[in-house]
Amino acid sequence: MAKKLEEMRQLKEKYEKSAKKAFDKVLSPKKTPSVTLEDNPLISAVVKVAEAMGIAVKIPPLRKLYSGENQFKLIAEESGFRYRLVELKDDWYKKDNGPILAFTKEGVAVALIPSSPTRYKCKTYEGEAKEVDGSLELSDAYVFYPPLPKEPVSFREMVKLGAKLIQRRDFIGMIVLAVAAALLSLLPSIAMQQAFNVWIPQNQSITILVVGFILVAVAVSRGLFTMVQSLCILRIQGKLSILQNSLLDKLLSLPASFFKQYSSGALALRATGFATIQKILSVNVITMIITTGFSIVNGFYIFSINATIGFIAMGLTALSVFLTLIIGKMQMKCQRKSIKMTNDISGMVLELITSVSRLRVAGAESRAYLKWVNDYAAQREVEYKRGKLTALLRLSTIALPTLCMCVIYYYVSINSISPGDFVAINSAFVVFISSLLGLVQALIAVNSVIPQYENTKPIIDGVPEVDSFKTTPGKILGDIEITHLRFCYYEGGPTILDNVSITVRHGEYVAVIGASGSGKSTLLRLLLGFEKPTNGNIYCGGYDLESVDIREIRKQMGVVLQDSQLIPGDILSNIAGSKKELTEDDVWELLKKVGMDEEIREMPMGLKTMVAEGAGTLSGGQRQKLLIARAIAATPAIIFFDEATSALDNRSQKIVSESMKNLDATRLVIAHRLSTILDCDRILVLEKGNIVEEGSYEELMKNKSYFYKYAKRQLL
Fold it and tell me: What is the DSSP string of 191-210?
């Protein structure tokens, strides 16, 4: 056994060092691995696609890899990247769609890597790289989304991460575009200098006519360059948009405690921050590259004609740039304040919309509107100030070049200079100062993403609830053990749970009751891993929740919380969710278990009936039945209900209770109704964070203690 484990360890080390090798693919659960690392089509293709996108691939443990589950899904989860199924339409290979993992009709995985904007190479596990054409028949295809780093990253590191998504040929294309555009910008100045100094005095009309045609060609070329620049911007925006997916992925990986720090509206704005950032950067970075080329080329040209005027131009331009930067800095200060106020207002608006029924019941619409309008007015005041600065910035780009030209005209008027040189300097200086001010404005725009980045930074710096060092559990039993649990929501705060110890055996039905504020829902949040104990340990299926991948544990739980909600969509998607293996017959069987099948059959659209929280399509009891059906859809090992049957009538309550008895699962419920807990194997009484009484219903009634008083109030 020890020898086998050592061989497995060596295999994994060999993969991590080479990053080119892989384990063989299991096409069916019955097939066992029998080939070398180099012979694996799937993982070899995944590695090639991931390398092209700068994603580090990690191989799952052998036990998990050969468990019969989808190997591609397991590798993606272990490596931390997301993927999406895509459809490869006709002539897809003639466009750059990024690296793609695909499967042939025979089920063999291949890596499709773009070799140019209009060509793809098909790389197989055998090392072949063939040109892709219309003869290649593929079935499924997937694109990858790289994850954000799990540790906090600086703005500079985020820029580097974005730069990795842009291919080298894109950078080269931008530089070539900038150089060509800069050289073209010189041609009108050179042509006018020669025309006024040589051709016009010598009456060379034919030469002048030819130059005219050349200048027209230059104008057309600049138009084409502008079009190419726009296409380049769109291409880079498409590449950088991948970061927006990564940001949302990072948000979904954060612990539940993170979401209590911000309102939903504010988080929505923070989560879409990269979309704004990538638009600003993609446009202005290219603008900076091109305008830099314009400024350098035309600046040297002015110096080559007249060094004195060159120094004057430099000094005037430096002054203009300085004034522009001051305005830009003031503008960024307003933007930072505006973003914060917008976050607060968005959170408030979302809360008002979701609470509109409660506002109407309380007659508080006017107070709610007054609160919103005051905050909105303050935000608009800041935006108005920022708008004035923007207008001033635009005015400066028009006024400053004109003032600078006046100074140069004055210098020329008192000094001797040829007409051709003057016209050339005039033309070059206009391009020079306009480009330099455009460069400064682009720089200001790039700096404006810093407040946007700061807005998204809490998500970027957030620590995911699961790290790579935690154990990946297999299938668990329903045993639950809590030892000496103590919990406070914050350091130095009141103790919510104090020295709580509970043991629940697999298949046991346990109820937790207690007065409001006794810690029942907090106990459930701890069992789900939403909160971390201050002291003590929690074990599910023999695994300590602190050292295990809690996501894998949750997949084997069926949970209905007090605030659980339906997903906007139809009844079928609400119950089946992402469980593709569930058929409509399975869903009908689940509805029968919760006593709702007949009600759904009577609806005109049946399982396709659209539902949503607050829509009024379903009653409170019907919503709870759907939530229960969804919770037991995956045949969980552990079931947690927090007031999950509070809105059910007695008949429905009985049907649900009978169905729960037939499940091979541990059940822990929080309830107040006696009818819910009468059949429990044990009842735990929680009082001020302590378990004060424990036993069956009959035992507790005989004790005539806490539970007896609690039950007596309902029996009266």
Answer: HHHHIIIIITTTT-HHHHHH
Which tokens is 275 given?
């979309």
Tell me the three state secondary structure of residue 143.
Answer: strand
Structure tokens at 524: 């459930």
* Cβ count within 10 A of residue 583: 10
**Dihedral angle of Cα 151, 152, 156, 158, to the nearest 10 degrees:** 60
DSSP 3-state of 121: strand
Q: Minimal CA–CA distance to 191: which of 418, 423, 416, 412?
A: 423
pLDDT tens profile 340-384? 888 888 888 888 887 787 788 788 888 888 888 888 888 888 888
Q: How far is CA 269 from CA 205, 218, 248, 455, 607, in A?
A: 63, 44, 11, 8, 34
- Does residue 475 belong to any structural domain of this protein? no
Instruction: Point out the domain boundary residue: 410, 427, 460.
Output: 460
- Write the pLDDT tens digit of every residue in 561-620: 888 888 888 888 888 876 777 888 899 999 998 889 889 998 888 898 888 765 567 888
The order of strands in the sheet holding 138-145 is 82-86, 138-145, 100-104, 109-116, 119-123, 129-131
412 and 517 both lie in a single domain: no
User: Could you tell me the CA-to-CA distances from 660 to 632, 680, 685 in Å, in that order?
Assistant: 9, 11, 22
Domain count across the chain: 3
Structural domain that includes position 8: 2-145
Q: What is the DSSP letter of 296?
A: H
Q: Find how far residue 526's CA is from the centre of its chain.
A: 26
Same domain for 186 and 85?
no
Last residue of a domain, one of 145, 171, 187: 145
Q: What is the CATH number of the domain that holds 287?
A: 1.20.1560.10
- Residues 125, 10 share a domain: yes
| Cβ 59 vs Cβ 43: under 8 Å | yes
pLDDT at 15 over 70: no
**Which residues have C-beta within 8 Å of that of residue 241, sequence separation ≥ 6?**
275, 278
Does 189 lie in the same domain as 113? no
What gap in Å lies between CA 27 and CA 25, rounded to an integer?
A: 6
Cα-based distances in Å from 703 to 230, 577, 695: 80, 45, 10
| CB-based burial label for 513 (10 Å; 0-12, 13-18, 19+) | buried
- In a domain, residue 496? The reply is yes
Radius of gyration from C-alpha coordinates of the chain = 34
Is 200 a member of any domain?
Answer: yes
